TrEMBL record:
The organism's taxonomic lineage, starting at the top: Bacteria, Bacillati, Bacillota, Bacilli, Bacillales
Single GO MF descriptor: peptidoglycan glycosyltransferase activity
Name of this protein: Penicillin-binding protein
Gene3D superfamilies in UniProt: Biosynthetic peptidoglycan transglycosylase-like, DD-peptidase/beta-lactamase superfamily
The species this protein was found in: Domibacillus iocasae
Segments forming domain Glycosyl transferase family: 62-234
Amino acid sequence: MRTVLGYVFIILLIPLSVLTFYYADAEAGKVQNFDDYVEERIVINEVDLPQASKITDTNGNVYVELHQPNRIVVEGDKIPAFLKELFIQSEDQHFYEHSGIDAAAVIRAFMVNAQSDEIEQGASTITQQVARNIYLTQDRTLARKIAEVFYSYQIEKTLEKDEILGLYLNVIFFNHNVYGVESAAQYYFQKPVDQLSKAQMAFIAAIPNNPSLYDPENRFENTKTRQERLLDIMAREEIITPEEAEQFKSETITLKVRPRLDRYPDYSTYVVSEFKELISVSEGFDQQLLNAEGDARTAIEEKLDTRVAEILSSGIVINTALDPAIQAKTVGSVNNVLAGSSVQASAAVIGNQSHDIVALSGGKGFQKTDFNRAFQGYRQPGSTIKPLLDYAPFIETSGAGVNYLVSADKYCDSTYCPKNYSKQEYGMVTIKEALTKSYNTAAIRLFMRTGIERSFSYLEKFDFNRISEEDYFPAASLGGIDGFTTLEMAGAYTSFVDGTFTKPRAIKSVTDLQGKTLYAWEDKAVRVWSANTTYKMREMLTSVVKNGTGKKANFSAPYIGGKTGTTNFVRDLWFVGLTEGYTAAVWTGKDRYETETEGIRYMEKYAPHQLIWRRIMQ
């Protein structure tokens, strides 16, 4: 009954709107032409329909579909004529004859729908539906309905009929966040729209009239019944023969629903974060944020978020360096080594030549909404900081060789008196042995000889996010800084490949759907260590793995080197190292501890950090 009353109201409304329309035309004609009057107030701009964006791996394969809605825009000439005719016959039989409004169609729809007790024919023209879906809202108000009339009038003046039909077929809703015929074809049948059979075309054409009622996944029979009704209409209008209609009806419809692609969440969550940073840098938001505070800063951040959403909705391709095989290995290594344990972990793998991030693990059993420890977890680095802050700066500034002698006996400076991990003293040792065995007192002596500020001047080149002048104190030489992320540490150790540092990135480029580059990083390599220092550090890092604290990470390789790290109370276990091809960092520990002295000492001999690293890199 409510449906019938609604149609009665619409029937009464349309003549009223038309009378209002012509009355306004007559009045406006006294001062200016009515067309000009409407054109001034309703501007039909070129339409860029929101589309789905996607993220691809290093091989160009899509692994994530981003943003709403799920729409793939297809040119009108690529949409089969049969499918177009299905929509014209069911939604707007006089589409090519009217000027946007068809009052007769409203009356006809009322009569047909009243007899069938279902919505068999639509009351709005295709043009009106375009106006509603693109320029207006779905609100059921008198103001919106009148606006729809005027917009339809202007659309008909501005666009050709085929353009209007093409827009319509790209905007209509097919349930499950699917918009447009191409997306519908790919979602329900995993085929391009021009490869659907006529029976399949009629099936998807049945959905938009009432997407909830004709939901193929949950109400298949309803959809099939309406599909057959549409084929009967096509036969009645002599577009197909009755025999063809029966043939199409008898074709078995088998859904092949394609789930939304959303793989490798450890990596993709970082890509989304990096994408925002790329837009910020490329469009100057980062400079605006430098000195902004309070409400001004909030306003800039909101503009940045809006801009990011706008770009994602335009249909872009974010091309990344993800290596699916290494990613699977990285995630699998973390999950398998720590299976059954309450200990967590994170890992980051970077290609030595490209400086691209090829794999990330955000944590054991990581899910998309989880805290991503690989780039969000800041922890003290322990002794993994020594090559970067103590040894390499000392060699760089002094020219010392790997056999340079330094004391590994007790050390005390004012109130700071660190001890070696074993609580033993070792006398004079070479710096190679000191790093191999991770003697704390030797490391702090080298750090102090170089000088705190000078040592930190090298660390600053790595663009660590949380380093500040407040960290410039002796304990920093042994990792007493809070903190560093797994990704940051892996990036810093790439400087031991050739002495340079380039900030590692996941995103290689951002293009439109036609392949045109829109955004790309323009990072340049920074020289950190001389070739001589790099050579010596590589020799010393190899000794750590073969003869020192990193033995459990060792395997046969043309080159392998790295450094272990352990923080107070064994709260964190690190291993950062490199081979000829890749550099990787692994952190293990717990997100929270119940007491200040609690740690994971019980895991120390098992060395999960080294085992994970070896499994990834081997």
